[in-house]
């Protein structure tokens, strides 16, 4: 009976684990839906900013801004988005592997002497980057994390913009997981600064040429006003994409853990029933044996 008690204890423990993972899956699903809802609400804003830029770029005017200035790249900042919490499968591991690959690609593109500063967002990614930080790769700590609000995010955007304008960084890139669906997220590497003028031109709405606008005070002033808004919307989109991907990865991890717990629970329950039946059979045989002896 000692074995039965041990099995019963294990069954209770596994059942408790299954309930916990199921609850965590539900919580992560709710957070994922919240993040995807934020992406949907952000979409009209980004569309409006791009709509204004489209009307500006279809004019014959040449725009000039320090935020689109191309210069020799001496130092690159890689802003890598991870998570603050664990239990999200290989989410952080996959991003870290892509970070290492991106560092090699930067060195191939700009030379082995290029300075690289990694700016991790999230406690888990910060711990991972600490292991590779040294003479060749610097790490910059920031207060931004996965729970930060809009004000902190905008402050971080202004910080990166200031570092670029001060020539501390000649190029700023963002590394993150792009959310596609609950079961699929893909790694993305996107340039934040300098803003790609060609990228803006490639996204011009062709309908803008058919609806000419009058600009007041002038197109150049409006361009320099809208461009920082474009940068903020880019970073906000990436931040929310990463958050949605993290929760999606956690949903899948908790689903896998719940399925494994259920499978183990079924096996333990079957073993428990076998031992219990065996014990009952043994007791019956003992009773029958005693009656025969009498």
- What is the CATH third-level topology name of the domain at 61-199 and 228-250? Pyruvate Kinase, Chain: A, domain 1
Proportion of helical residues: 55-70%
User: Describe the biggest sheet?
Assistant: 5 strands, mixed
Look at the helices and sheets and give the structural class. alpha/beta
DSSP, total strands: 5
In the sheet with the most strands, the strands line up as 3-2-1-4-5
Unreliable spans are: none
Task: Briefly say what this structure is.
By secondary structure, the chain is an alpha/beta fold. 62% of the residues lie in helices and 13% in strands.
Question: Keywords, please?
Answer:
single chain; 294 residues; alpha/beta; five-stranded mixed beta sheet; 5 strands; 62% helix
Polypeptide structure, described:
With 294 residues, this protein is α/β, with parallel strands linked by helices. It has six helices and five strands; from the N terminus they run αβαβαβαββαα. Strand 1, helix 2 and strand 2 form a beta-alpha-beta unit. The protein has a domain at 61-199 and 228-250: ATP synthase, F1 complex, gamma subunit (Pyruvate Kinase, Chain: A, domain 1). Strands 3-2-1-4-5 form a five-stranded mixed sheet. The protein has helices at 2-57, 91-110, 123-130, 150-165, 197-202, 219-293, and strands spanning 75-81, 115-121, 137-139, 171-181, 184-193. The two termini are 27 Å apart.
Write the layout of secondary structure elements.
Elements: H1 2-57, E1 75-81, H2 91-110, E2 115-121, H3 123-130, E3 137-139, H4 150-165, E4 171-181, E5 184-193, H5 197-202, H6 219-293
Parallel strand pairs: 1-2, 1-4, 2-3
Antiparallel strand pairs: 4-5
Helix pairs in contact: 1-6, 4-6
């Amino acid at each position: 009976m000692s074995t039965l008690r041990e099995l019963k204890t294990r069954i209770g423990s596994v059942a408790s684990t299954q309930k916990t993972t199921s609850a965590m899956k539900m919580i992560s699903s709710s957070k994922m839906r919240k993040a995807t809802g934020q992406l949907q609400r952000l979409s009209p804003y980004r569309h409006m900013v791009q709509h204004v830029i489209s009307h500006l770029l279809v004019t014959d005017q040449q725009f000039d801004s320090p935020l689109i200035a191309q210069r020799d790249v001496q130092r690159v900042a890689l802003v890598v988005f991870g998570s603050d919490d664990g239990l999200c499968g290989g989410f952080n591991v996959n991003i870290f592997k892509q970070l290492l690959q991106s560092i090699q690609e930067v060195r191939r593109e700009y030379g082995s002497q290029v300075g690289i500063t990694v700016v991790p967002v999230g406690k888990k990614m910060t711990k991972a980057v600490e292991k590779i930080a040294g003479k060749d790769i610097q790490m910059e700590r920031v207060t931004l994390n996965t729970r930060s609000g809009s004000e902190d995010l905008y402050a971080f955007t202004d910080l990166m913009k200031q570092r670029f304008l001060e020539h501390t960084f000649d190029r700023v890139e963002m590394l993150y997981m792009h959310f596609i669906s609950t079961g699929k997220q893909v790694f993305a590497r996107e340039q934040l600064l300098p803003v790609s003028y060609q990228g803006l031109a490639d996204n011009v709405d062709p309908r803008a040429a058919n609806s000419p606008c009058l600009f007041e005070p002038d197109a150049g002033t409006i361009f320099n006003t809208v461009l920082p808004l474009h940068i903020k919307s880019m970073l906000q989109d990436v931040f929310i994409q990463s958050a949605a991907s993290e929760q999606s990865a956690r949903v899948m991890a908790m689903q896998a853990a719940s399925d494994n717990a259920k499978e183990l629970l079924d096996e333990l329950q079957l073993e428990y029933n076998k031992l219990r039946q065996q014990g009952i059979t043994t007791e019956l045989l003992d009773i029958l044996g005693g009656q025969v002896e009498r």
